[in-house]
């Protein structure tokens, strides 16, 4: 009887590690590349951009980062719980992954908006970074 239980458990473990098709591999890779381009650019260049190009002080830029990260402390668990409680016919995360990339890309581009009318505007910098972080969640 014990060998029968082990035989039934074995295929389930193998299904978890099933091979991905090349299309799936390329799709996952492209999505990961896009996500890392946005996350890497914002993480590594935004404070530099805000202080040198945008013209705000480093202290104000760091304060913007701090406040947005504190908002994320409460926002991220709420988003996670919301997504876990709701499902869609074709997958729990699929609509967020498909349709979330468009506003995320737009907001990430607006972070580095080179328009003189908003240059030096701390409120615009804060709102643009906050919106990008909230959408990223």
Q: Helical percent range? A: over 70%
Envelope shape: elongated
Question: pLDDT under 50 segments (min length 5)?
Answer: none
Number of domains: 1
**Largest sheet entry:** none
Structural class: mainly alpha
pLDDT average, as an integer?
82
> Could you spell the SSE succession in H and E letters?
HHHHHH
Our estimate of the beta-strand percent is under 5%
Assembly status: single chain
Distance between the termini: 47 Å
Number of helices: 6
CA radius of gyration is: 21 Å
**Count of β-strands:** 0
Could you give a quick summary of the protein structure above?
The protein has 137 residues and is mainly α. The chain contains 6 helices and no strands.
Textual characterization of the structure:
The protein is an all-alpha fold. It has one domain. The protein is 77% helix and 0% strand.
């Amino acid at each position: 009887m014990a060998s029968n239980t082990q035989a039934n458990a074995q295929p389930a473990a193998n299904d978890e590690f099933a091979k991905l098709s090349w299309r799936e591999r390329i799709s996952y890779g492209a999505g990961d590349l896009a996500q890392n381009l946005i996350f890497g650019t914002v993480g590594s260049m935004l404070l530099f951009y805000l202080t040198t190009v945008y013209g705000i002080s480093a202290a104000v830029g760091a304060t913007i980062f701090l406040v947005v990260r504190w908002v994320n402390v409460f926002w991220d668990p709420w988003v996670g719980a919301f997504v876990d409680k709701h499902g869609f016919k074709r997958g729990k995360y699929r609509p967020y992954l498909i349709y979330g990339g468009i506003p995320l890309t737009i907001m990430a581009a607006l972070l580095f908006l080179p328009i003189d009318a908003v240059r030096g505007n701390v409120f615009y910098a804060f709102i643009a970074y906050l919106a990008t972080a909230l959408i990223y969640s």
